[in-house]
Design goal:
7% of the residues lie in helices and 23% in strands. The protein has 236 residues and is mostly beta strands. It folds into two domains: 69 residues, Ribosomal protein L2, domain 3 (Irregular), CATH 4.10.950; 129 residues, SH3 type barrels. The relative contact order is 0.14.
Length: 236
């Protein structure tokens, strides 16, 4: 009897592959302002979160506490301004319509008020390209140009932790602990190295790997791997 593929097990939604969000420090997003007035917060601490690659700043806006993606160079005691009247200064949070072209930004909202969805990984930044037809064009770290609503908020600067990828893991055990913190499957095994019961590419003997990589026509979702079988063959 066959077994589910890894991607089918993951899609089922069991606890084996579910992100352990109960271990994360909290929601890291912008707080909502009542009437877009400027608020000034103080950085109380720089935290580490297993759910984020970037350091997290704990900021107090009066009596309200917020968790924000830390910018490069941020330290305890720094001030962060949030609102329409905030200064054009690194770390401050403003609407895209106010930020000048060519400015580096991070933690950009996908829709106004969602708290920030884009450019949150350590060491990344985007750049405001142009303002055309009521939309703000931003070049993302992938070099892709994306349009945003002018009311979407973003932070000025670069995300902290840019040297994270330069440090080698050295041992597979270190890598396992790193992936296990996010409930990610490690190590990844090649499909050709699996048994025939585990994957359509699996089977044959170890010394002679390889198989026809065309999925069968009635393959269920997740088993359509490799080349997709054509609907018809031959000349019309």
């Amino acid at each position: 009897m066959g077994k589910n593929l890894t991607q089918q097990k993951r899609g089922k939604g069991s606890m084996t592959y579910r992100s352990p969000s109960f271990r994360f420090i909290g929601d890291v997003k912008y707080k909502s302002l009542a009437n877009n007035t400027k608020e000034t917060g103080v950085v109380m601490d720089i935290l580490h979160s297993t759910g984020h690659t970037a350091p997290i700043a704990r900021v107090m806006f009066g009596s309200d506490e917020s968790l924000l993606i830390a910018r490069h160079g941020l330290k305890t005691g720094d001030m962060i301004q949030h609102g329409e009247d905030a200064e054009l200064k690194e770390g401050n949070i403003l609407s895209l319509k106010i930020i000048p072209e060519g400015t580096t930004i991070f933690n950009i909202e996908s829709k106004p008020g969602d708290g920030g969805k884009f450019v949150r990984s350590s060491g990344t930044f985007a750049r405001v390209q142009s303002k055309l037809g009521g939309k703000i064009q931003v070049m993302l770290p992938s070099r892709k140009i994306r349009e945003f609503d002018p009311l979407c908020k973003a932070s000025i600067g670069v995300v902290a932790g840019s040297g994270r990828t330069e440090k080698p893991f050295l041992k597979a055990g270190k890598r396992w602990h790193n992936r296990n913190a996010l409930n990610k499957l490690y190590p990844r095994v090649s499909a050709l190295a699996m048994n025939a019961v585990d994957h359509p590419f699996g089977g044959s003997r170890t010394s002679k790997k390889g198989k026809v990589t065309i999925a069968r026509r009635n393959a269920p979702p997740g088993a359509k791997v490799g080349l997709i079988r054509p609907r018809r063959t031959g000349r019309k």
